[in-house]
TrEMBL record:
This is 3-hydroxyethyl bacteriochlorophyllide a dehydrogenase. It holds the Pfam family ADH_N. NCBIfam families: bchC. It comes from Afifella marina DSM 2698. Keywords: Oxidoreductase. GO terms for molecular function: bacteriochlorophyllide-a dehydrogenase activity. Residues 25-118 form the Alcohol dehydrogenase-like N-terminal domain.
Length: 312
């Protein structure tokens, strides 16, 4: 069995090509993908060749971990799943290319447990569940303070703010310099950092990916405050010690989400407490994947680009 897939053959060289699929097992499902999202964090690093050493890293590879589709076939142990619309957070579907993270393809083969059933009306917005779970994982960690300042109003920054509000915490402030990107706040406020005079934030969550930002954030902390690195950084991070010492600053790294995080945000979405509306700004047929990736990484107006596989 073969499928069309986005293949990064080398940095900045992307093709839509036919690749071989692995043979499904008894507990696997075959998912015909309808939509997949493009990550402007990890996928940008893969596309540009700046991804640090990472398990499974190497070219050629199929990127993507934000796919929604329908189960079209299944092994003997998963036949009851046929017909379900599911979210798939990546796969190891391919026999002749690497899967990092293996979700940007017309057809995927995954263990049934990894295909998460979603409501029909969620549609393409289901691709956002991975980012929502990433935001939830950062906020819901044991002993974590809810953010009162978030750096960046891209999709992950918006989801951090929306999840905070959904969990009935005090609405955070979000820093955003780009006036167009600053729009669209739901239940919280955005502000240009140059206009913010506060220096008593207790929990600052950074999703900017800016490895030079720590000194600026430390200067805004209350004593004993915490900085949470919730983005992904390709360069080493450093900070000046005395200001951090005087504040007894804490630093925490939030890693990728786990299954309980996905379950939690799925419930928040299905009960109406967390909205995924207004986050997908661009859509492109999968046949135009190269242009879609370049737009996703190069156009500041693009919050989230979706590849549509239905006509591929």
């Amino acid at each position: 069995m073969n499928t069309l897939a986005v293949v990064l053959e080398q940095p900045e060289h992307l093709a839509l090509k036919e690749v071989a699929l692995v043979t499904p097992g008894a507990d696997d499902v075959v998912v015909d993908v309808e939509w997949s999202g493009i990550s402007t964090g990890t996928e940008r690093l893969l596309w540009s060749g700046r991804m640090p050493d990472f398990p499974g890293m190497g070219y050629p590879l199929v990127p993507g971990y934000e796919s929604v589709g329908r189960v079209s076939d299944a092994g003997e142990g998963a036949r009851a799943r046929i017909g379900e619309r599911v979210f798939v957070p990546g796969s190891r579907s391919f026999a002749d290319v690497r899967s990092l993270f293996g979700g940007a393809a017309k057809r995927l083969i995954v263990p049934a447990a990894r295909a998460i059933t979603i409501k029909e009306d969620l549609g393409e917005r289901g691709t956002l569940l991975a980012l929502a779970a990433t935001a939830y994982h950062a906020i819901a960690a044991e002993g974590a303070r809810k953010p009162d300042l978030i750096i960046g109003h891209g999709v992950l920054g918006r989801l951090l703010a929306r999840v905070t509000v959904a969990l009935d915490a005090e609405p955070p402030v979000v820093w955003e310099r780009n006036a167009e990107r600053a729009e669209g706040a739901l239940g919280y406020v955005t502000i240009d950092p140059d206009k913010d005079v506060r220096q008593d934030y207790r929990a600052i969550y950074d999703v900017s990916g800016d490895s030079t930002i720590l000194d600026r954030l430390i200067a805004r902390l209350a004593p004993g405050g915490e900085i949470v690195l919730a983005g992904f950084y390709s360069a080493p991070l450093s900070f000046t010690f005395p200001p951090a010492f005087l504040r007894e600053a804490r630093l925490r790294v939030a890693a990728e989400w786990r299954e309980p995080d996905l379950v939690a945000v799925k419930e928040l979405v299905e009960t109406g407490r967390l909205s995924l509306d207004g986050l997908i700004t661009h859509r492109c047929p999968a046949q135009d994947a190269d242009g879609a990736y370049r737009t996703a990484f190069g156009d500041a107006a693009c919050l989230k680009m979706i590849l549509d596989w239905r006509a591929a």
